[in-house]
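OP here, attaching both records as promised.
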Amino acid sequence: PMVAMPASVPGRARVAALVAGALALGVAAPASAHIASLTHSRVQLDGALVHYQILIAPADLAEAAGSTAEGGPDRAAIEAAAPRVITYVVDRIGVEDAGAPCPAEGGTLAIRDDDLVEVRWTARCPAAITVLAIDYALFFDLDPSSEGVIRVEAPDAAPIDTVLRADASRLEWDLSEPPPSGTLAFIRAGIDHILYGFDHIAFVLTLLLAIVIGRGPGGDAGAPRWQPRHLGAALGAMARIVTAFTLAHSITLISASLGWVSVPSRVVESAIALSIAYTAIENVIRPDVRWRFVLTFSFGLLHGLGFARVLEVLLPPDDVIVPLLSFNVGVELGQLVIVAIALPLFWLIALAAGGRAYRRVIMPLLSAALGVLGLLWLAERLLDLRILGF
């Protein structure tokens, strides 16, 4: 059934809602988007043996293959450099048992139908494994933001899933104890995605700029004038906006992660950039927060698809529900950190400068800066340019 939008909703918000909703809910052919230096590992324990399998995007193997080709090495270049690539990968992933090194044996390389490079080898430990440790350092020297998603499987135990990164690069598992939970790793991945997702931060900041002021009595001839809101009113407006954003991005994050919705990455990322520019323009022209939750919900659907694009390469092949919910919790926690810092800051600025100066000078300047960022990201994503680089 069709749901009619109230006629009193401002026209711009109605247009934004319709455009964002169409983009977010439209089903299109799946499109994969590579996130730099992110790998998937499957580790199987078998007595004293550790069978290691890792999947790597070809673009990440430029240095390993000695390639300078734009866009990374092609299939032929990787196959020609297979021994070098295997050595490069194996040397950067250490395996131990109870502190004793487990030397790597052999090694094979294959390129799958989905173009991912699969490297396999076996590490032989001195005795049956009791305390497994994996030290993961692949690509950290090239890209400190690299991540490695690892699943470890042991006989008679539930598998564990975790995400290793430069500042948390070691996995340890005492097989005599219950397997460690991967929940915290996925919560942290969600937090990191928000705190390092500058486009998502810019969107939240653009939303928050307008909610610390409102029209009140006291102007010339009794006309309403802009003035700082009471903190309670600002917090109430913030709660409505954050709730709308959370609900919207949770819907599309879960839907896309479970394969119910698929939208091309270029459309999603471009629309996210456009959402920043659009909201910034609204801040300058007419910062009407009464219906800002409609705008926020509409664009939140798009941002949820952006979160899902990241999560789809982090999720293990099965048991996706707990990692999915954990990642979403992390996103919310990261969002709350941003709000907890930015909202009091904007409110204090409005209080110090006065509502008139904040509305006429400060908010337009800050909105313009964020809007320019949005437009530059839009140009980068539509035209495959590199302008900002973040």
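Record two, same layout:
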Amino acid sequence: MLRFLLELLPSLLIGFWAGGRHETLSTRLATPLVRFGVPISVMGLLLKGGLSGDMLRAAGFAWLAMALVLVGASRLPGFAELVSPTLRLGSCTGNTAYFGVPLALAFLPDEALPISIGYDLGATLLTWSLGPLLIGAQVTGSQRLRGLLSSIAASPATRGLIGALLVQATPWAALVTDALWWPSRVVIVLALMVLGMRLGSIHSKGITSAARPLPLLRPLVAKLLLYPFFLLLLASLLRFEPLMVQAVALQGAAPTAISLLLITESVGADQERAAGLVFWSTLLALFTAPVWGVLLRSQF
């Protein structure tokens, strides 16, 4: 737990401080980081952990779990707030790339990285393909297909996966794997700083009444407590291997993804609650996610 906090907190705090003073800094840094840095990081992590069929299973599992939540979460007793598409999506889409991967590195062996990245890939594709449709965008079937294909092509996880497959087919795979390991970790630190900048920017603009923690209490409970437990239960029912159960449940403990805020901004709907859910879930996950990591590691 201490290792996880030591890796995350300094980067997040530096980013939070910088983002509060320069509101557009995160946007300027995020573009090159997502375009170049994150694919290199994903490629290095995949090569280090080893590519396997578990990655595809994790991606499919992410689709299944999120689809079940999107269909049934609003029917849970006491969770009527989840009738909102924004809050329902926010209760199951996690910041797995920036938060979940460091979580996996801190609490699980390297072999869990492909599973974690596979889950991230599946969750990212589902979020960007269905998110705009659920929250407010009116698009045709052809536009929906183009949007899905564009999301797949633009995803840093996809680019990193392609790069890892190409490198693995060469005789220099071991050399490249060793060379990319530390740059991959550096990119994660930079990504956490960008996340902190985004949170600092949200805080500097002021937290509206709709984005305060009390109105968002049930979605926060659903994301940080109920969703990881749901993934743990579902993966166990599907008889996944212990490491895979640990990996997918731990990814579920990640806070709400910034992509939710980007989607609401792009469609012009529910930005305040999305910003509040991202902000508060990230702060709370600094405490809840390590607890999940310790519990999962001790149970398997």
